[in-house]
Design brief:
Low-confidence stretches: none
Mean pLDDT: 92
Structural class: alpha/beta
CATH architecture of one domain: Alpha-Beta Barrel
Distance between the termini: 48 Å
CATH topology of one domain: TIM Barrel
Number of strands: 10
CATH superfamily of one domain: Aldolase class I
Helix content: 40-55%
Number of helices: 14
Radius of gyration: 19 Å
Largest sheet: 8 strands, parallel
């Protein structure tokens, strides 16, 4: 019991509060609360112990595994962010987004060919228009990485203009990057103001605030940056750009989901979570879904509150689904991502 209590208190604010009922509306943010941010502390050893125990205590098999893997597909931001991206690359990716799982596998699972779609297609701003044209009528939104992705060191006005331009091109979601130096120097007002400005520039488009956790030095910094972004109105907080040396890890995800839970309980406002970078296998996907269900509840295992940043994950999930249907593992080339 003592161990469980330490795990529960792994990420804990100093001040107490009375939980507020959830509201079914977009996170509009709240005024910056520096006392709340500075009063948040993280017990690293307890976080790591909790993250390890989550995956060791849970095992998903057979039809339940297939069902959760289909859920994982619906939460994917199918992504291509390479320097050699072309319109043809994006068109193939968008076509895969419309039909992410082979029709014969869906039929064997008792599902319609159009039963599963990904959460979004994520591309650079220059290719937003291409993706929008291919996905028109599919219900799959286009997400654009913006604000000087991945470093986030472009001039501020240029970042704002990039957000507006992506929205004008048809992007319904914008993945923005924060200035890491503001976190490392403890300038929480600057973190808040930056994310708030991006949120206003995006208008009706939802924003995912990328914290680049591998560059923030400590779990306490990650917790405080998460809170600042949520207070500023981020619709999602996201671990990484996928370009850092260390990207999404379960301990980091635990800290960020605890901040979402704390923020929701205090304000009634709901925000989502997106791990990105290094999530490549079906097992990885299941571990993240377990984390979300255990820490935030099943509502946070659906695409309106949870996304994977994924490029190679889909192929492995499709292989696992074929194994569930046929009892055999197929070669990877039978399940091209695009």
């Amino acid at each position: 019991m003592a161990t469980r209590n330490r795990e529960r208190d792994a990420v804990r604010p100093i001040t107490s509060y009375q939980p507020v009922p959830q509201r079914d509306e977009r996170n509009d943010g709240i005024p910056l609360d520096l006392a709340w941010i500075r009063g948040t502390r993280v017990n690293r050893s307890a976080v790591e112990r909790r993250a390890t125990s989550l995956t060791r205590r849970r095992s998903i098999k057979k039809q339940w595994q297939a069902a959760w893997l289909l859920r994982a597909v619906s939460c994917m931001d199918l992504t291509t962010l390479s320097g050699d991206d072309t319109p043809g690359t994006v068109r193939r990716l968008a076509a895969k987004a419309r039909q992410p799982i082979r029709a014969d596998l869906l039929e064997a699972l008792g599902l319609r060919p159009d039963a599963v779609k990904v959460g979004a297609v994520c591309v650079y701003h220059a290719l937003v228009d291409t993706a929008v044209k291919v996905l028109r009528g599919s219900g799959v939104p286009v997400a654009a990485v913006s604000t000087g992705f991945p470093a986030g060191l472009n001039p501020f006005e240029q970042k704002l203009e990039e957000v507006r331009a992506s929205v004008d091109a048809g992007a319904e979601e914008i993945d923005i990057v924060i200035t890491r130096a503001n976190v490392l120097t403890g300038d929480w007002q600057a973190v808040y103001d930056e994310v708030r400005a991006f949120r206003q520039a995006a208008g009706e488009a939802h924003i995912k605030a990328i914290l680049a956790t591998g560059e923030l030095a400590t779990l306490t910094n990650i917790a405080r940056a998460s809170l600042a972004a949520l207070m500023a109105g981020a619709d999602f907080i996201k671990t990484s750009t996928g370009k850092e040396p260390v990207n999404a890890t379960l301990p980091t995800g635990l800290v960020m989901t605890r901040m979402i839970r704390d923020y929701t309980e205090r304000t009634g406002l709901v925000a989502g979570f997106k791990p990105a970078g290094g999530i490549r296998t079906a097992r990885d996907a299941l571990e993240w879904l377990i984390l979300m269900k255990e820490e935030l509840g099943e509502e946070w295992t659906r695409p309106d509150r949870f996304r994977f940043g994924a490029s190679s994950l889909l192929g492995d999930i499709e292989r696992q689904l074929e194994h569930h249907v046929t009892g055999r593992y197929s070669a990877g080339y039978r399940h091209p991502m695009a």
